[in-house]
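Attaching the record inline, Q. Sequence:
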Amino acid sequence: MTELKFPPHVDEITSFLAVEVFQAAQVLEAKGRDVVHLEFGEPDFPTPEVVCAAATEALKAGKTRYTHSLGITPLRETICGYHNAKYGLAIEPDQVLVSGGTSILAFLLMTLLLEPGDEVLLTDPSYACYANFIRLARGVPVMVPIHERDGFQLDPARVKAAITPRTKALLICSPANPTGVVMRPEVMADLAGLGVPIISDEIYHGLVYGGEARSILEFTDRAFVLNGYSKYFAMTGWRLGYMIFPRHLMAPVMKMHQNVMISATEFSQHAAIAAMTEALPVCEGYVREYDRRRVYMIERLAKIGLDLKYEPAGAFYVFADARRYGDDSLKLAMEILNEAGVALTPGADFGPNGEGYLRFSYANSMENISTALDRLEPFLATRG
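Structure, as predicted:
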């Protein structure tokens, strides 16, 4: 039998190192080791009860069928109302596509925008899967470095210098994964002025401590917004997200989604309406607790030798420079896992400029965070 060979772009897809650490942790746990997991960005809070109740009622009412490819009208109207009120916009329901999470939407958007060899600019470091979405669409990810000394803010001049005739989009995320940085409004305005379509991943909106994140749609209508229910609403397993897009692209966007997904699950869409209209007080309680954990984690990290030179003011991540303990972040993360029983994400997962860093997630209980740092402190002391 002839050996099956994959096309070259498949070989370019990189492993998700956070998952590799998680799987290694599972092996240890199967042997009886206790591991504290700070590697994933998944809320430890339950989905608000009002959301679950809405899903239950929808199931009882038989809301288990295909829907309009863009999503049910009441949900798209709710999304528009939510964004228009929060950001002063004028989005309409025919600019909204609801699907099975922001990852599938990001991939679909890349296949819509890119021809083979087209380029998408993104920050280095940035979310590990972005570059792979681009590669899967036969595009080329072009990394624009950001640095802790600059507060991990993206420099519009660097972006401008990276633009070529093949540049089709700039992909940004604020609040950012892995740094937790909230992009300054003046930076967003300057980026919008470059004339390149912007894809803005706003999945961490709502998770901001001392201020508000701004939507790219406040600065330009040449933009695509990705958002969903996983983070702020604590609905990771519901796999539901949405994209806001320029109105003139409705036909190709809908056609693409019809072929790949048909539609998002019906009962989940009814639950999402409840999330945006009834669950906000519960979610704001979650945000206050995240902030308490954030402050504690930053203070403890500084005491044990991982002090930050920037302000992580959003999401639920801290990106700590650990190069004094080793330049190979995957190796260091595995040593910490095996010796200290703490699972962290290696900075190399997020691009070359993240190498030597470790990402800590505070989407875990204060008790577990404290235990993890108690375990990490003596490990680092032996390495100092």
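The longest strand covers residues 167-173. The domain at 49-279 is CATH 3.40.640.10 (Aspartate Aminotransferase; domain 2).

More tomorrow.
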